[in-house]
Amino acid sequence: MIYRLTFIWAAILSIILAGCWDQRLLKEHSLVLSIGYDRGNDEKLIKTVTFPKNNNDSSQQSAPVNKSKVLSMTGDTVKDAEKKNGPKHSPKI
Length: 93
Known about the structure:
The protein is built from 2 helices and 3 strands; from the N terminus they run αβββα.
């Protein structure tokens, strides 16, 4: 009996507490196509990130063209390169 009551309460709470209030729309974010790390001539780390470019031009009726936006940043460490990227340079991930 206690097991059944616990199951009913869990089912009711999962229906009530689940919702879309925390969803992040894909149109406001971008997916990362590729990430690469290289060493530069000055022994600094070069991080390169590729994002798909939005093509919202509705006047084009031809086949879609896959274009990418490439961002590169340098730093002493991976974390340092990520900090230098900042939210103003890249789309939301």
